[in-house]
Amino acid sequence: MMESEAMTQPGSGIEVTAHCPPLMPQYKLNKVELEIDGAVHSIEWDQPAFFAASPGVHRVKVGVHGRLAKSGARRLDVGVEAGHVAEVAYSLSMLSLINPGKLELKGKRPSA
Description:
Layout: E1 13-19, H1 25-28, E2 32-36, E3 39-43, E4 49-52, E5 56-65, E6 70-80, E7 84-91, E8 102-110
Parallel strand pairs: 1-7
Antiparallel strand pairs: 1-4, 2-3, 2-5, 5-6, 7-8
């Protein structure tokens, strides 16, 4: 469960970066819809977005929903360790009308 920064380990959290291929400009006109443990956020393409999270496992869901483009959502359970940032990447493919893209854990790094 997401908690306020005051209740998390210093710097522990999840960083999400969403990437869209250059040949799909209609998707870039929409923001990426990100959900972490039920809390919904809107993030920009190709800009890392950090969200403080307590150590433990968190459910991450990412998709694109807009007037000009839409993709289904992908889900991933992400483990956050105390004092670390879990790096998550979402990327669309050229077949995003059929395939909602790829959501994966890229790694982790110390928060300091």
